[in-house]
Amino acid sequence: MSSEQYQVPTGSGSQAPGGSRNFDAEPPTAMHYLCGDCATRVRLEKGQPIRCGSCGARVLYKERTKRMVQFEAR
Amino acid sequence: MKPSKEELERRNIVGVGAERVTNVTSTDYPGHFPGEDHAWDLGYFRDNVTIEFHKNEPLEAEFSLIGVDASIANAFRRMMIADVPTFAIETVHMEKNTSVIQDEVLSHRLGLIPFKGGKTGFRKFMKFYKKPEDGEEHSYVDFNTIQLSLNVECTHNKKAAKNETDVTKLYNHAHVYASDIEFNPVGRQEQYFSGDNAIVPVHPDILIAKMRPGQQINCSLLMHKGVGSDHAKFSPVATASYRLMPTIKIKSPILGEDAKKFQKCFPKGVIELQTVTRKESKEEGPFKGKEGEWKAVVVDPMRDTVSRECLRHDEFKDKVELGRKRDHFIYSVESTGQWRSDEIFLEAVALFKEKAKKFEHQVINMAR
């Protein structure tokens, strides 16, 4: 498994839905994607152009969830 | 008034014509023939039932069950398929799967792999797992769940030759096999399933998935005891079927070239060509003066497939009578390897007895 573990979102009940959130607790600003062309892991900040850093391809794929997924073997 | 031997044989044979079957229903029950008592009798049944094995290998058995009604024979067949329990993977917890095979498809494939383990543990210790109702917590304990895991990663093989093209040599774990599945015993499973009794796939070289370097499969698998009526993956047999014993009656002799042609109408070994002996040729009858000629003789009707080919030829049409014995069932049981093939039948018989006892109890309660 990779070093970053999936953090279970902990929404506190006191916040009103749609209201302002507390962003002090390190908001996830960067996301990782997989390049559709060269398959390297691409780190993207908020607002960055969607583009692979190493080969310049513009097709990026979302990574697989780090959560466990349960299936029935049927 | 007792029926003659010929009459009993006639009743016991299902006729097979070129385009139809005759005498299909059994008649051995009370009230069908006036003056005859066909009431079911344990002693009569015990004396008349026979089982004869023709082939008994761990993965395949063929045997005859003679002297029972079709309903009983069919019950055994159905119970072998749907009621004899085995192990199979039921739940897959997928942590990582970067191979090209989709999670669902991989899970399904894992479910179909047959596993074997210690028989005492399987019979006495392991219980059926009960699926939780809505809102209930699942209850995985050592006597209803077996934990397995599959953790494989494909990497480049550094030792491979430079111009190697075989992917199994070029990469480590390019192919994921059933033998890569590990058994993780918990609780008392250690004492029932260790050493020779460990839970392993019956066939270690079942291909589960193919991978390339950088791809990885990590998952934990939960296995339960189950029955075939729930899902075919729990069925202990690949096939369990029966057919009725064929009969071939040659009414008037088939001689010479006709005999050779007649032999070719059947699978190998059913009909034999014999020469008419001097003694036969001297006696009054169909063989008179035919010494040294070929005659067709039925030697092994069990091998016949009852293709009815001989009935298509005009020269044989009235000389031969095809049929099947109504109470002679030739079973063919092919095991998936968790039980020995003959054990499956015994297990079915034991289950049948258990069910009959339960039914008896209910009937008694009903009559009260």
TrEMBL record, chain A:
UniProt xrefs under SUPFAM superfamilies: RNA polymerase subunits
Record's keyword annotation contains GTP-binding: no
One GO-annotated biological process of the protein: DNA-templated transcription
Entry's Gene Ontology molecular function annotations: DNA binding; DNA-directed RNA polymerase activity; zinc ion binding
Places the protein is found: Nucleus
Region annotation (Disordered) ranges: 1-26
Pfam families: Zn_ribbon_RPAB4
Keywords (A to Z) from UniProt: Metal-binding, Nucleus, Zinc
Primary localization: nucleus
InterPro entries listed in its UniProt record: RNAP_P/RPABC4, RPABC4, RPABC4/Spt4
Highest taxon listed in the record's lineage: Eukaryota
Compositional bias annotation for Polar residues: 1-17
GO cellular component: RNA polymerase I complex; RNA polymerase II, core complex; RNA polymerase III complex
The family this protein is said to belong to: Belongs to the archaeal Rpo12/eukaryotic RPC10 RNA polymerase subunit family.
The protein's name: Metallothionein-i gene transcription activator protein
Lineage: Eukaryota, Fungi, Dikarya, Ascomycota, Pezizomycotina
From TrEMBL, chain B:
Alphabetical GO biological process terms: DNA-templated transcription
Location of the DNA-directed RNA polymerase RpoA/D/Rpb3-type domain: 60-362
Main location: nucleus
CDD domains attached to this UniProt entry: RNAP_I_II_AC40
Gene3D superfamilies recorded: DNA-directed RNA polymerase, insert domain (2.170.120.12), RNA polymerase, RBP11-like subunit (3.30.1360.10)
Locations listed in the record: Nucleus
Nucleus in keyword set: yes
Domain of life: Eukaryota
Pfam families found in the cross-reference section: RNA_pol_A_bac (PF01000), RNA_pol_L (PF01193)
InterPro entries: DNA-dir_RNA_pol_30-40kDasu_CS, DNA-dir_RNA_pol_insert, DNA-dir_RNA_pol_RpoA/D/Rpb3, RBP11-like, RNAP_Rpo3/Rpb3/RPAC1, RNAPI/III_AC40, RNApol_insert_sf, Rpo3/RPB3_RNA_Pol_subunit
Molecular function GO terms recorded: DNA binding; DNA-directed RNA polymerase activity; protein dimerization activity
Alphabetical UniProt keywords: DNA-directed RNA polymerase, Nucleus, Transcription
Cellular component GO terms, alphabetical: nuclear DNA-directed RNA polymerase complex; RNA polymerase I complex; RNA polymerase III complex
Similarity-based family: Belongs to the archaeal Rpo3/eukaryotic RPB3 RNA polymerase subunit family.
The protein, known as: DNA-directed RNA polymerases I and III subunit RPAC1
Organism: Rhypophila decipiens
